[in-house]
Amino acid sequence: MDGVTLSREAAESGLAVTADGGRLVIQGPRRLEALAGRLIAHKAMVMAALAGELVEIVGRTCIRFTADATEHDKAIVRAMAEWDEPRHTAGRREENT
Predict the structure, then answer these.
(1) Which residue range is the domain that position 6 belongs to?
(2) For residue 57, what is the enclosing H or E element?
(3) Which residue numbers in the chain have pLDDT < 50?
(4) Which of 9, 26, 39, 95 has its CA 20 to 30 A from that of 45?
């Protein structure tokens, strides 16, 4: 799930989500605590969505694209992020060589 979709879901559910500097501010009824937890768990993507940026998560890497990034540029950055992810084989971690 991306930050825009999650932010939209929060707004439709009744949560007010804003950014205050580097803080994510979530206001709403306590019954939506689980949704607020998902927002917090994806803070980087939600903050980027609030700022109007496009963010993707590849493995453990958060990638921010500018509005003028081409699909070719995005594909190269995604491939580099995937290559940098550690590989797991036969129960042991194998670093890229």
Answers:
(1) 1-51
(2) strand 54-58
(3) none
(4) 95
CB 56 within 8 A of CB 49: no
* Spatial distance between the Cα atoms of 40 and 92, rounded to a whole number of angstroms: 31
Same domain, 73 and 45: no
Do 3 and 38 lie in a common domain? yes
Q: Closest by alpha carbon to 55, among 68, 64, 44, 46?
A: 64
The rounded mean pLDDT for the chain is: 78
CB under 8 Å to 19, separation ≥6 — which residues? 25, 47, 50, 51
Residues forming a β-bridge with 56: 63
pTM of the predicted structure, to 2 decimals: 0.56
Same domain, 12 and 36: yes
